Amino acid sequence: MRTVRTSTGHRLPLLLLLLTVAALVLPPAVAAPHPGSPSAPRASGAPARAATARYVPPIRHVFVVNIENKGYDETWGPDSAAPYLARTLRRRGVLMNNYYGTAHNSQPNYVAQVSGQGPNPQMQGDCQVFSTFVQTGTVAPGQAQGTGCVFPKGVASLPVQLTRHDLTWRGYMEDMARPCQHPAPDTRDRTQQASATSQYAARHDPFVYFSSIVDRPTYCKRHVVPLSRLTHDLAKARHTRNLTYVTPDLCHDGHDATCADGGPGGLKGVNAWMKRWIPRILASPAFRRNGLLVITADESDGPQSDASACCGEGASANSPAPGIAGPGGGRIGALAISPFVHPHTWSTTPYNHYSLLASIEEVFGLRKLGYARADGLDRFGLDVYNSGWNE
């Protein structure tokens, strides 16, 4: 082996000298980032992500929880029957008091949150039949024209966006009997009514209304799962999905005033459920590190109670009145809790479910889908991300 003489007169093997110089010149190796982290390399063929807006903090885990059919005053007012939600949790976050549903009845609001698609009459009727959507065209902004409930594969959705960008997601459905549970195509939906043994409602599970998900059984079963899986997935940050979407059952989301199993319904049922599950989310490593929790309702009490809208919403591609008796799903409010949110604050900016979708897409650097890219639609800004994290 060749040697070289150093300035001190010592002889070193040439190979050892070259390795020493390389160690001084080259940057240190770093651990590979988690697939959901901002610096993670894209898998071969994965689309490039959009640049994140400067007002968006480095959130990497979003949690969404919906309750059912509750107007703003009923949920958040001083006489709320859910004091844990309306007072205890409310003190921990920013309350968006001009947040609106986008339609009546329930089903199209969930679909709006994960796709930006507007309602049609079948969806406004809560998809009593799990009917195939028959598409007749596409109009701006990215709206599938047609009738039916289960959208064809070509209709984009947030879950598929996340997967294509090497990000992770899961829908957690309470009382779901088996992963990816849904009615057979073009048959009556038997989950419309709760029973003493099952209170799962397919119409509150937006993921099963996309052929791009349900026509891939293995993919669907891995991503749309019973709520019981959430405990394991929250235990460690590496198990927690970038998007965690939680739907309580017909008792615990407040839909049924009296639960089919005899338990308390309405906001009392909501309160009990929140006290059990929300502390687990807030204590999870993923949330504490860089999480955002949004709690809202799908719609107000009903179209005759409040079908108002915000954000310029009017007739959609398939419905002249998304709220049946008006342009929207009514004023419902939304609470955001995060390390990037200052506790016990307010935002008066008008938002709706399309704003929520657009905000999630901004967090993860995704292009905006459907009505999430409507002109003039506000996304969560420093009125929500108001902790001073950017100072």
From TrEMBL:
One GO MF term attached to the UniProt entry: hydrolase activity, acting on ester bonds
Region (Disordered): 178-198
Keywords: Hydrolase, Signal, Virulence
Source domain of life: Bacteria
Secretion signal, residue range per the UniProt entry: 1-31
Biological process terms in GO annotation: phospholipid catabolic process
Record bears the keyword Acyltransferase: no
Pfam families: Phosphoesterase
Gene3D superfamilies for this protein: Alkaline Phosphatase, subunit A (3.40.720.10)
InterPro entries from the UniProt entry: Alkaline_phosphatase_core_sf, Phosphoesterase
Record bears the keyword Ubl conjugation: no
PANTHER family linked to this entry: ACID PHOSPHATASE PHOA (AFU_ORTHOLOGUE AFUA_1G03570) (PTHR31956:SF8), NON-SPECIFIC PHOSPHOLIPASE C4-RELATED (PTHR31956)
Record's protein name: Phosphoesterase
Lineage, top ranks: Bacteria, Bacillati, Actinomycetota, Actinomycetes, Propionibacteriales
